[in-house]
Amino acid sequence: MMSEQFQRGTLGRMRLHVLPTKRFKTFALSLFAGVPLTEEKVTSVALAPFVLRRGTQSFPETISFRERLDDLYGAGFGFDLYKRGDHQIVQFRLDMINDRFVSSSDSLLGEALSFLGEVLTSPALEDGKFRSKYVEAEKTTISKRIEAIINDKIRYAAERCVEEMCKDEPFRLLALGRKDQLAELNADKLYQAYRQWLQEASFDLYVSGDTTLEEVQALVEKSFRLPTGEPSRYAPPSLRPARSEVQTIVERMDVGQGKLNMGLRVGETYGSDKYASLLVYNGLLGGFPHSKLFMNVREKASLAYYASSRLDGHKGILTLQSGIETANYEKAVKIMREQLDAMKAGQFEADDLRRTQAMIGGQLRELQDSAFERIAFDFSNVMSGAERTGDSFIAEIQAVTPEMVTAVAQGVELDTIYFLRDRKEES
User: Fold this and answer.
1) Is 424 helix (H, G, I), strand (E, B) or coil?
2) Which SS3 state, helix, strand or coil, does residue 353 take?
3) Which residue from 225, 207, 252 is spatially nearest to 11, judged by alpha carbons?
4) Could you report the per-residue pLDDT of 324-346, keeping only the tens digit for each?
5) Which among 170, 190, 223 is the end of a domain?
6) Residue 15 sits in the same domain as residue 133
7) Which of 31, 190, 370, 403 gives a 20 to 30 Å CA spacing to 416?
């Protein structure tokens, strides 16, 4: 499928991953910074990139920061914040046109890496700390984003199910942090936390485009001022068995439609040689329109407005989500549990297995057409210790047999049932 391979190197605390390719007219840059999820630091780690995007030492005003991106031929800059396994990841992204397509005398890749390095390591300061006006404004931004989750009842139910399932694990925490911790974070405290974050984070810098590892190394050396040391590794996630007795959590809010979610432990993670079988299992159970949850809960029984499953391979958990009328709760739970039992018994059609494999294979092929998706795929390898390529993973998916799906199904155990319902009392 793709002959290009990532070239690897290290520079101080940073791992470098360069994909030399002429397929795209742009350079795609991704910088991943990961730290273990902890209650004490989750909010400061979440807030830092919001403040870093406001200005740097050379471009301290937000307007000059944005004008700098315009100068780089309209380069796109942004960041994401998420949980991966037991880690909190900040991902900075920058994409910009290749020098070959514009009349620029300077190396645009060099300019882009210089900009990214300054965003990360030379933020706009006042009196040796972050600018207070930026910190206060971005605290409001995060607060509103957390409130938006509460207002999006599908997302809220999904987060609450995981929070209850993992109530004594760091994974219960939102990647955005905790709203109640924002008030205590002022410009000075956040700056100190940011300095500590630079000392502790695992850094992986990806560059895709018409370049070489040697060129990127030379440019990065001039652009990033990270603390000295060796690159740190990602610890594997803690895999826990399901509770011996399934816990049921019912929460009441002003909702028109009930949200029934289930949390399951799957016993395997992305780095496992059984992961391909697990991905096919998820596809058969609830990943596609032909899956068991969709067909049996939504189509045949007409109990749900939506019904699907989602596999988190980096944490080793599976979640089922459905929207139902409150009166249909017992029936929906029964049918959803029956689908789990059917998978354990190997009760699925050979045609559905082939269709699932074809659809997953199609998704994996599509990923190869995006530089950022290829980067994300490779970073999953880095985090998990896997050594998959797009081609090898498609081959793994195609090689999954009915017996392999049934075998991984045996390890999937229900842990938590979470139901978000209205405030009306049962009659």
Assistant:
1) coil
2) helix
3) 225
4) 999 999 999 999 999 999 999 99
5) 223
6) yes
7) 403
Total domains in the chain come to: 2
Q: What angle do helix axes 132-151 and 42-52 make, rounded to 10 degrees?
A: 120
Task: Give the count of alpha carbons within 13 A of 293, CB side only.
Answer: 29
Distance between CA atoms of 308 and 321, rounded to whole angstroms? 6
Strand-pair category, 247-252 with 413-421: parallel
| Residue 200 tokens, joined | 């502790």
Cβ within 8 Å of residue 182, ≥6 positions away: 43, 47, 139, 142, 143
Residues paired with residue 81 on neighbouring β-strands, in sequence order: 90
Q: For residue 225, what pLDDT is reported?
A: 87
Residues constituting the chain: 427
Domain around 334: 247-421
Name residue, tokens 């596609």.
288
The whole-angstrom separation of Cα 373 and Cα 362 is 14
Cα(156)–Cα(257) distance, integer angstroms: 13
Give the three-class secondary structure for 275: helix
Coil, strand or helix: which one is 343? helix
- Taking residue 283's Cβ as centre, other Cβ atoms within 10 Å add up to 25
Whole-angstrom Cα Rg for the chain: 23
Separation of alpha carbons 375 and 145, rounded Å: 27
Q: Which value, to the nearest 10 degrees, does the dihedral of the CA atoms of residues 130, 132, 136, 141 take? A: -40
Q: Which residues of 107-132 are buried (b: 16+ CB within 10 A; e: fewer)?
A: ebbbbbbbbbbbbbbbbbeeeebbbe
Query: Of 41, 24, 23, nearest to 33 (Cα)?
Result: 41
Angle at 412 between CA 418 and CA 38, to 5 degrees: 60
Residue 215 shares a structural domain with residue 256: no
Strands 304-312 and 317-324: antiparallel
Two structure tokens written together for 322? 């459905």
Identify which of 327, 271, 305, 320 has the alpha carbon closest to the alpha carbon of residue 85.
271
Question: What is the pLDDT, as a whole number, of residue 427?
Answer: 40
Put simply, whether the predicted model's pTM sits higher than 0.90 gets the answer yes
CATH number at residue 14: 3.30.830.10
Residue 4 binned pLDDT confidence (cut-offs 50, 70, 90)? confident
DSSP character at residue 129: E
